[in-house]
Specification:
2 domains; six-stranded parallel beta sheet; 44% helix
Amino acid sequence: MNSPARPIHVVLLMHSTRSDNLGVGALTVSEIAILRDLAGRLGRDLRITALDGVEPRAPYVTGPDITVIDMTGAFLKSPKGFWALVRGADLVIDIGGGDSFTDIYANQRLTRMFWMKFMTHIAGTPMVLAPQTIGPFTKPLSKALAKLDMRLSKVVTARDDLSTAAARAMGITSVIEASDVALRLPYDPPPPRAPGGPVKVGLNVSGLLMAGGYSGANDFGLKTDYPSLIRSLIRRFQAKGAEVHLVSHVIVHSGLMTGEDDFRAAKALSEEFPGTVLAPDFPHPSAAKSYIAGLDFFTGARMHACIAAFSSGVPVVPMAYSRKFHGLFGSLGFNRTVDYTSESAEAIEEKILAAFDNLETLAAEAAVALAKGRAKLATYENALLEVMRKVPA
């Protein structure tokens, strides 16, 4: 009689089980949903180890198959820590925090990423780069290391066409163009709505943009006065008889990220504008998506809040402050994104309101794009399945 197959041990890098940014958390919840589905198809059990930053929030990604390890500097450097973990794993999946595989952010973050990547390659453990933004890389050393990392990885997956082009420009012809794994984020569909009642408009208010960016000095080069535009949108939606829901997607209870907190900004606006609805302090990404799924229209500057609407069938207009928005939605043929870095407040406002006035058309366009996104994401899932299939029983 054959003994049962041992579990497939997967280590997750640059994922988060407890990030205050629910978009980063959505990547992890979705990745795990994909892994569980694929393991079921193979008839194998899973053992998932998630390396996570030390944060005040308790993990909201849990289960008997999941272990969370604090990613301290001591753990990364200890031979009995990170090295032993990845050497004993069957597979390492790196999602780069969604958009951190670039040298435009702090050097410390990229240095830590490269340390984990190349320790994994030296250990000989298969590495999969899950769908993420790739590039830009502007410095010779980081570009060379990124190129080598991708050449050594078993699967390299971009989540948009701009990232695919960046990888191919570095000679990585094997790159797969998929889409964001958060299209698979589980949620509870809303119950049927009773006839009548106001149209429910979801407005995601970015605490980061309300504060002027990380430094308060318009770090993202916006061409518009973001706080003024948000207030104008609230007034105009209310003038149309809509019920405006102020929805947060980065919710910070304590720590260094309080300046990025959406909830504080939304709460202040709810007090300023009577009749608005302050959405809850969501405990995890699926709770946020379940709430968003009950709205009639959505717009916002947190990309994964927009993905939650998009993937649950809610007509959406994403508000871009970086290339990742256009890359993701544009590569699916969904061209409703407005851009704070290149468009005037007046142009943005009119585009959003025009979309709101044509919800059926917007919903139809989004449905076609979503089907394309799911088909593209399946290419990543199939590639990952083949890597998992080769894990010895």
